[in-house]
Amino acid sequence: MILEVSDIKTFYNETQALFGVSLEIKQGEVVALLGPNGAGKTTTLRSILGLTPARSGSIRFDGSDITHSATHEISRLGIGWVPDDRRIFPTLTVARNLAIARKQTRFRTWSLKEMFGIFSALEHLMDRECENLSGGEMQMVAISRALLGAPGLVLFDEPTQGLAPKVAQDVMATVSRLRDASISALVVEQNAVVALQSSDRAYVMDRGRIVHHGLACELLADDELRVSLLGV
Ligand code: ATP
What we know:
alpha/beta; six-stranded mixed beta sheet; Rossmann fold; globular
């Protein structure tokens, strides 16, 4: 297992948001994390990243206990993050945003040339200031930035949010191709069907708990179960 989250409980001050969440991701696996607003999906990502550390339970990544590690240490071990606001430096060029994302981990490093192979439009955007990019272009930069950090696992928070349907599908196709490079992905999505189509397995959360987990294809095929869990 590349990631093992065991029975974590996470709080915002005295308000409990996670009530014993457990999930596992194997190397090269794409896993969807689904559920309604307020279910605790973002809080699960924040706990893994050390932004809102779990108060109990444990989180192991690539053999290390990271439950109480600082965010920069977790990043250095090889967990990449594509936040929902894409968190790009708006006044810097694409080239600069990508240059400052580079780091070495024990995982595979990526060259800019490989990024241009994945996102053909990126090469022509390098001198553009990021505030002038479209939503889809920004998402390309955000994903490229995560990959240039040499991750073994990438956490995606609503990667298709605000994107046109075709662009959203392209983004998810890119996410699902990460498994070819043995990179794992945990994908939080509102767009459950698109996420399931690109994932190996899925976890569904509700009110701070995991209420279902199984193969993504099974949840796609079982209309009754999917509608009862996800409403779509
Ligand atoms: P969404 O899709 O709306 O982002 P989510 O599944 O990601 O939902 P979380 O954002 O993880 O859910 O929220 C889980 C719970 O924690 C909710 O009850 C939410 O109100 C609460 N919460 C989230 N962030 C904070 C915060 N900064 N302070 C206090 N409570 C918070």
